[in-house]
Amino acid sequence: MVTIPRPRALVVHSSMSSSTASAARAVAEGLDLEHMDVTLTDVSHAPQLDAVTHDLVVVGAPTHAFSLSPPAFRAGADRRGRGREPAEAGLREWLANPGRRPAHGGRLAAAFDTRVNRVRHLPNAAANREAQMLIHSGFSIMGKPVAFLVEDILGPLVTGELERAQDWGRRIAIATQDRLAGAAPGRR
Predict the structure, then answer these.
(1) Quick one: which of 60, 3, 2 has its CA closest to 31?
(2) Which of 48, 50, 62, 121 is 20 to 30 Å from 93 by CA-CA measure?
(3) 124 versus 6: which is more confidently predicted?
């Protein structure tokens, strides 16, 4: 009997409150439920992007000023005692310094963000910027970037969003496995 290795996923999040970290955990649970080996990490502990050997990279961060948090915003949050993320380490910087681009293509990624419920329909947001930066680094994006809603800037997540994040993780896992197997999307 031949054992087929489980696809591997790396979920990297940047969180200034616990909301984005909670959404990332739910996404990781969804990936795991669909038989992926999952590593979940804060961006401050993530390997350099070019050193990642996982089949799928999922990134998530809060939306601030219609994009990823700039260092000055994170530093201000740290000074106010609201931030958990070191001011110098954010997803924006991690994605902006991918290291050497790999010679091969086909690296897969997905992006999400958290945003305040009252501004759920933003023309630009963190997930869109994450996806653009991943594409620039040679990744193919699996599905449309998604937003998970929080009640207020410090959270918590809106009721039902953890379940939605887990479901999204499952769908991304299925699409990734189909892509890795060379199957047409939606075959499952």
Answers:
(1) 60
(2) 121
(3) 6
Angle at 77 between CA 44 and CA 117, to 5 degrees: 95
Answer whether residue 38 shows pLDDT above 90. yes
Domain boundaries, position 162? 12-116+141-181
> For residues 25 and 158, what is the distance between their CA atoms, to the nearest angstrom?
15
| Three-state secondary structure call for residue 140 | strand
Q: Residue 7 falls within a domain, yes or no?
A: no
Residue 186 forms part of a structural domain: no
CATH of residue 106's domain is 3.40.50.360
Looking at the structure of the chain, the number of domains it has is 1
Q: Which three-class secondary structure state does DSSP give residue 105?
A: coil
Q: How confident is the model at residue 86 (pLDDT cuts 50, 70, 90)?
A: very low
Query: In the predicted model, what is the mean pLDDT of residues 112-138?
Result: 84
